[in-house]
Amino acid sequence: MAGRQHRETEIARKVRARGLASGYTLAQIAGQVYDACGQRFGTTRIKAHRLSHGVALADVIEQVRALFERDGKSVPGIGETLLSAYESGMKRPGPEYLHYLCSVYRVEPLALGYDGPCICGHGHEVIDDACEDNRPRISPAPWARPASPASPDNCTPSLDGGEEDENVLRRTLLRLLAGGTVSAAGLNELNEEVLGAVENLRRRMDETMVTATVSPAMLDQWEQATSGFGRQYMNTPPVRLLCDVMLEFAAVRKALNHRQPVEMQERLCRMSAQLAGLSGMLMIDLGDQRLARSFFRTGRMAADETGDRALRAWVTAREALVPLYYGDPREALTLAKKSRDLAGTTPCAARTMAPVVEARALAKIAGLGGSRHDVVEEAKRALHRARTAFSQMNDSDREDPAFGYTERQLYFYQGDVLVRLGQTVEADVILEKALSQYSGEDLLDQTLIRFDRALCRLIEGDVEAALDLGRAAIELVDKDHRTDLLLKPGYDLEKAVRAKHGDSPELRRFREMLAESRVGIPKDLIKDVG
């Protein structure tokens, strides 16, 4: 990189020397530097202007600070890192910094590579008279010029948040309400003071509309991290992943504390919904249904801000898992149907996931003594809808176990539904097929599949095989992964064995193994998240 920068500087130095010798202005030389280095080195227009002046980053920074002091403002926090980010295109200067950079280089924002006028509303270019030979005169570098005194018509709004400008308007309004008319002197005051306040407030709105506290590159990094968390969901210990997710969640929240351009705001809200949904999923794994519901509520609010029905449907489908695992399956059925309605005909993960949750909820309802034949048929129709929707998903969604839906997940939950409906022969075949699609990844699903197969053995009357499969399911995962969600089917298996066959030494050993396996959430993390 150092060699590349050296070549860029050498070429710019030669272009500058030839331009000065030919009598071109520094702005014209900057255009020539951009033409010579832009495609070759990725030189931006704003950097080309600094190179055309033949100065370092520190020189530009000192000139900006001097202009702030000239205008009676506190010295800004701009440094070489921030200016370098502007020159690399990683960040865009805010309206105030852009105004002063335009003042330094004596050009308009467009010449520096930025659309729109400067917030001051005045031109920055210095027009020089032409030489006798009609060649352009060299514009003196701003470093050699004395700073002009501040104009009474200050070109930037005051730094008091606009309160004084608002007070000017309030005082004028009260005067008008009290007197009913405005004198000639009052009209002059209106022109000088009130219209000045009006213009300052307009400029402040311009600044608010274009100001961003995060760069597109930073948003890209956050989105990549969010996708990475989704891929890690099945394999990373939940408490560890929760810490990572919450740190990213906090960074996104801080960015949302500030008004962002519409496109950036939407991307931040999307990440907020995904991170909140993923946090809710981890809370389900850790057995804290209260925090899980809270996170899904946050996720729904963030998704609503995006207007993306597929995202809202995904959050709702994930939320349905809370009552499915820890509450009333009828509530899970209601949420799953709501998710399906939100997804509509859009090919997305929720359009596959929602009917799967429906089928699982219906299978649990059948186990509670509902109208069994009708419920079984309805569950099978839901699975058929899920398979149809899965065939219409794009490839990337089919490879994402958290924000998408994989084929092995579809097989797993189809087998799970059949187990709950008592159709063990068909369920065992599908569960075996699901398990064959896993390798070392997705430990959570593999463990739950093994517990489903253990339940099949119990339904068929083989208690010993059921407990053996249950023990194997637990032993095949590290203790850090043994969450409440993962062990819950183990507790259900123990309860079912005891209800049908009574207690036994083997069952007691299995129960002790479950008790020793549970992993909890650290108290300080619960406090921070709550």
Name the overall outline.
elongated
SS-based class: mainly alpha
How does the major sheet shape up? Answer: none
Distance between the termini: 46 Å
- Rounded to the nearest angstrom, the radius of gyration is 33 Å
Task: Report the strand count.
Answer: 0
Strand percent estimate: under 5%
N-to-C SSE string, H for helix and E for strand:
HHHHHHHHHHHHHHHHHHHHHHHHH
Supply the number of helical segments. 25
Q: Helix fraction?
A: over 70%
Low-confidence stretches: 127-160, 183-187, 523-530
Instruction: Write down the overall mean pLDDT.
Output: 80
In terms of topology, how is this protein built?
Layout: H1 2-22, H2 26-41, H3 45-53, H4 57-70, H5 80-88, H6 95-105, H7 163-179, H8 184-210, H9 216-232, H10 238-256, H11 262-285, H12 289-306, H13 309-319, H14 321-326, H15 329-343, H16 349-367, H17 372-391, H18 395-398, H19 407-420, H20 424-436, H21 443-459, H22 463-475, H23 484-501, H24 505-517, H25 523-529
Notes on the protein architecture:
The protein has 530 residues and is an all-alpha fold. The protein is built from 25 helices and no strands. Helix 16 packs antiparallel against helix 17 and helix 23 (484-501) runs antiparallel to helix 24.
